[in-house]
């Protein structure tokens, strides 16, 4: 499986890499800026469609109203709609609502660069960022007033946190960060729980049952925190 191979690679001794941070890589900045400009232009040009109208309706008013709409009307977890409600306090226009997805997509691109640097230290992480930034789905998600771009961001952040939390250099802080992200992910989109199960399966295959126990314990905490959604 591809994920198990990545787990193995992430736990191998790291090759010597340049000291430049992925956040300071100007090429990733250029790629991300290009993505933001292109998505902003599309956001101005594209018409609003039905699902986006649902998001606009659900995020009108207070955060409490957005949470109720998410659970009762959208049949989704509430985080995205609560965030959108707060975001739209600054500007209620369709364009500005779409910019929240553009920002999520941009952060996902930067995170993809960090993942690339972690897994492929000899390759310029800007290539990984560019691969994500030019994917049609990522561009589309960055112009939608829906949860998709935030899901991409949380999925990428979970992957990066997973590599840090359950590799050979794991720490309690890294595990705590992964657990917090996992809870946020479940409260944003239920299907991100499938990604968590895939992480567990990869750990079980590569590391064995004993090394998987910390992950299972952390996943138990996530499950308990998600009980209010039931």
What does the model show?
With 230 residues, this protein is mostly helical. The protein has 12 helices and no strands. The chain has helices at 2-11, 26-45, 50-58, 63-74, 79-87, 94-119, 125-133, 136-141, 148-165, 172-186, 192-207, 209-225. α1 (2-11) packs across α11 and α10 packs across α12. It is flat and about 50 Å long. The two termini are 32 Å apart.
The shape, in one word, is flat
Share in helix: over 70%
Give the topology string: H per helix, E per strand: HHHHHHHHHHHH
Average residue pLDDT: 89
Strand fraction: under 5%
Unreliable stretches (pLDDT < 50, length at least 5) are 11-19
Structural class: mainly alpha
Number of beta strands? 0
Span between termini: 32 Å
Radius of gyration: 19 Å
Helix segment tally: 12
- Biggest sheet features: none
Layout of secondary structure:
Blueprint: H1 2-11, H2 26-45, H3 50-58, H4 63-74, H5 79-87, H6 94-119, H7 125-133, H8 136-141, H9 148-165, H10 172-186, H11 192-207, H12 209-225
Helix pairs in contact: 1-11, 2-6, 2-7, 4-5, 6-7, 6-9, 9-10, 10-12, 11-12
